[in-house]
Amino acid sequence: MTALRLAFVLLFACLSAGARVKTGLDVLIEQNFAPLQGKRVGIITNQTGRTEDGRRIIDVIAHAPNVRLTAIFSPEHGLEGVRQDRNIGDGVDEATGVPVYSLYNEGRYRPTPEMLKNVDVLVYDIEQNGARFLTRITTLGYTMEAAAENHIPFYVLDRPNGINGLDFGGPRLDAKYVSFVGYLPGLPIRHGMTAGELARMYNGEKKLGVDLHVIRMEGWKRNMWYDDTGLEWVNPSPNIRSLTAAILYPGMCLLESKEVSVGRGTDTPFQIFGAPWYRAREVAEYLNEWVPGVRFVPRVFKPNASVYKDQECQGVDVTLVNRDAFDPVLMGLELLAATLKFHPGKFDLDGVMRLLGNDEAAERLKRGETGRQVLDAMRAQTEEFARIRAKYLLYEGTAQAQPQNPSPMVEHTRAHPRLEQKTPEGRREKLALGTLFIPANLNLKSPAPLLFFFHGSTWVPEVAAAGNGTAVISIQIGSGSRAYIQPFLDPKFFGNLLQEAESKAGVKFSPITLAGWSAGCGAIRQIMSTPEYYDRIANTILIDGIHTGYVTGQPGPLESQINTDQLQIFVRMARDAIAGKRRMIITHSEIFPGTFASTTETADYILGQLGLKRQPVLKWGPMQTQELSEVRAGGFLLVGFAGNSAPDHVDQLHSLPEYLKWLK
């Protein structure tokens, strides 16, 4: 028994651990450098070009068998990524003796034919984090052009887009603003692509004619943030010192000018902004109303370098609260709108046009439109870019949903059909937590039905909502029920979130349904435990996610061993449902987590408290699931499904559209 339990623990550890992404460099090493064999190689890289175990690509290529490293090219900030001056000279790499050519030297941004005379192959390996004005992706374009002109094959060793590869948007670059901080006309502020994908787009859209090869990553999915990859963080530049700064950067950088400091010369560049004349308190209040996912707090600061060096600035601190709800481009446009609104005559939008890069957006901001209005007006531009972008993508959309409690056993006795992934037509509004989706086919008038859905891919509840005539707020925070409980420990948070949704929709919502899958049921438990919301909620759907711990800390089959304190709110809700005061659906699988109580055990406890017994059934359920038992009483329904594997767990998530029909 001890050995079996140990095996379970080890298996759970493996399943819960994040899969480590292999970069293009690590894949190249596994290929034993096959594409470079017998070649003289030039590398475009900096401090981010490292293997999984921290070795520089320079050292790896220099010691690769039958490969000769002949040239190194460094981008802005130099080979070590610490220089902040504009004229970085050439040099020699001390460890290898290979010449280092600076591509940020007195306005020289491109390799010359002389630099390339001993190069048979160019290899690009630099991390980038999703913003159009990062110069390393311009260096990518310039070196590709040089490769085409000199008939040199070009390899991109791909790396993650650190701020995920799903989200993109913002004003697209007008051709007149092409510069070192904006290489490709038509590229939006946030592109949501990897370097390899951008290289494919450059080659295709600009018809460069490069002999291009992308060595793809393994294990990377578009919805991954950098801290999901298992890779060690390396500061990509002197002033982007954390993933948080990288996430904020596409918006914060829009404000950077001679008139406003964005925190250069402080401990938190791109996480604070202001000026000696800035009306920080009013701007913070404005932004807190309009930009979800972050909080703005007025604070005085004094930069020791760059704009307003050694001057006291009235500033605003930016704290990232929920990156999944946060849109950095929206923030950047609202920063511009607020700065113009509260400081007439102090801030000249022309000073940031190389960054904003779009005349229509500028004119709208000058007319007093909000950032949200600008984005909405330019939605057609974003949709056009999406069609172009799709041709060049190399990676799947999302990582496979990871169940909260995967089974140690896997069965293959039946198919596991899935909903068709699609983006229903409708209106989407980012909230302080989550996204409000109003389907196009919903006749929006007060009172309008609203579904809150916790955990799992956003498109699933949107598809379910569109098919069932309801608006939906989708909230995805992470894994584990604690993550979903935390925001709602503040008793006012749910009410404020609902009020924000009603304000943006322009209607009152009723009836309200709370639905959660797996870890998301933790949010429902916390919300329903707040007295002021209990009667406001009409329906609840708890999908294979009611868990609790063991009193002894050890697993066991008896009800007396589970901690029942966390289940009392569900018992109360079930009693009210039986009495016809609400509707409640509970589903469970046969998965046995081992370290905490299964959904079968918690369902058995709830039924015991209600004095109800299961009725055996054997029939097909939604998504070809196998129903084993049912309990129906008044507005209460509990369904037990067969299956003890991860696919069985995910089946129940994809059954959400049918569960909503069951409520009717």
Topology, pairings included?
Blueprint: H1 2-16, H2 24-30, E1 40-45, H3 57-62, E2 68-74, E3 91-92, E4 99-102, E5 121-125, H4 135-149, E6 154-157, E7 169-172, E8 188-190, H5 195-205, E9 212-215, H6 243-252, E10 272-275, H7 280-290, E11 294-301, E12 313-320, H8 328-342, H9 353-356, H10 359-366, H11 371-377, H12 379-390, E13 426-430, E14 435-439, E15 448-454, H13 459-468, E16 471-475, H14 481-485, H15 493-505, E17 509-517, H16 521-528, H17 531-534, E18 537-543, H18 568-578, E19 583-588, H19 599-610, E20 615-620, E21 626-633, E22 636-641, H20 646-654, H21 656-663
Parallel strand pairs: 1-2, 1-5, 2-4, 5-6, 6-9, 15-16, 15-17, 17-18, 18-19, 19-22
Antiparallel strand pairs: 3-4, 7-8, 10-12, 11-12, 13-14, 14-16, 20-21, 21-22
Helix pairs in contact: 4-5, 6-8, 7-8, 8-11, 13-21, 18-19
Question: Could you provide a short overview of the structure?
Answer:
By secondary structure, the chain is an alpha/beta fold. It has 21 helices and 22 strands.
Label this structure with key terms.
about 675 residues, alpha/beta, Rossmann fold, Aspartate Aminotransferase, domain 1, 3 domains, ten-stranded mixed sheet, seven-stranded mixed sheet, 21 helices, 22 strands, about 20% strand
Which regions have little confidence, pLDDT < 50, spanning 5+ residues? 1-18, 399-413, 553-560
Please give the radius of gyration in angstroms: 27 Å
Q: Briefly note the structural class of the backbone.
A: alpha/beta
DSSP E strands, number: 22
What is the terminal-to-terminal distance? 46 Å
* Named CATH topology of the largest domain: Rossmann fold
Quickly name the level 1 CATH class of the largest domain. Alpha Beta
Mean pLDDT: 89
Query: Number of folding domains?
Result: 3
Gross morphology: globular
Beta-strand fraction estimate: 15-25%
What topology, given as strand order, has the largest sheet?
Answer: 13-14-16-15-17-18-19-22-21-20
Number of helices: 21
Q: What about the largest sheet?
A: 10 strands, mixed
The name of the CATH superfamily of the largest domain reads Alpha/Beta hydrolase fold, catalytic domain
In percent, how helical is the residue content? 25-40%
